[in-house]
Write a structure and sequence with these properties.
Helix content is 21%, strand content 29%. The chain has 250 residues and is an alpha/beta fold. β2 and β3 form a beta hairpin.
């Protein structure tokens, strides 16, 4: 996949309380999961890349979305600093998708180029009504957090750098994109919210892997899962506390 090897550092900027079935189809109703809001810092070959940029502050999150708590050390600028990451030195920010818990705080990354799939940016502007709130879409009267971001719009798969591929991965969102990253320990695939928990990968009585309940095209979602399993040695979920068991991957 390339000769460059990267390391991947997960950074938590708070904890959401999510109904488990929202993340895992067929999980028991009435059960909840404590889920970190994660950024992933990728470094190697002279590149500094951030995958997603976190969510709103607790007041905004609780008012419009889900129960959310954030410790002072999890304030995005503080969390990055504690991990030894300088957001002003990022060369690229890769937006997996534009849901509210993945695209705030972009103003911290002052020198980065921001990459998003064209279909995601288009859908986020006027999604189906059941998805409008999670996008903080203009159709709800809200102003999305990324409204002042200058995006570079991409279409489909592309190679961002040697050993760092970006795969078009529709599923949880119609314009999802997921990085496939070469490391000394094999290829890592950051699944984002296509597989928010390791439980999605383990599966249940409805199959393995198992999608979450938020999607626009179930067929595309399953095809993304099939491709993920073909290309990746390791998968990092988008909202699993266990991801934080390691300080660094690769």
């Amino acid at each position: 996949m390339g000769s460059t090897h990267y390391t991947i550092t997960p950074v938590s900027v708070g904890t959401l309380t999510i109904e488990r079935p929202q993340f895992v189809w067929g999980a028991g109703w009435g059960t909840e999961v404590q889920s970190p809001v994660l950024m992933f810092y990728v470094e190697g070959g002279g590149r500094r890349i951030m995958v997603d940029t976190g969510c709103a502050d607790p007041a905004q999150a609780v008012k419009y979305h889900k129960p959310f708590v954030r410790k002072p050390e999890e304030e995005p600028a503080n969390a990055l600093k504690r991990a030894g990451i300088d957001p002003t030195q990022m060369d690229t920010v890769l937006c997996t998708h534009l849901h509210w818990d993945h695209c705030y705080n972009q103003e911290l990354f002052t020198k980065a180029r921001f990459l998003v799939q064209r279909v995601e940016l288009q859908y986020a502007a006027a999604p189906y009504p059941i998805h409008a709130n999670v996008y903080e879409a203009p159709t709800t009267g809200m102003t999305p957090a990324y409204s002042k971001t200058k995006f570079e719009v991409v279409d489909g798969d592309f190679e961002l750098a040697d050993g760092f591929q970006v795969l078009f991965a529709p599923g949880h969102a119609p314009g999802m994109q997921c990085p496939l990253i070469s490391t000394a320990k094999g290829t890592y695939y950051i699944a984002g919210d296509n597989a928010p928990l390791y439980e999605n990968l383990e599966g249940n009585k409805f199959g393995r892997p198992i999608p979450g309940m938020i999607y626009a095209d179930l067929g595309a979602y399953y095809e993304t899962f099939r491709r993920m399993e073909r290309v990746a040695d390791h998968v990092l979920p988008g909202h699993d506390m266990k991801v934080l068991d390691q300080v660094r991957y690769g």
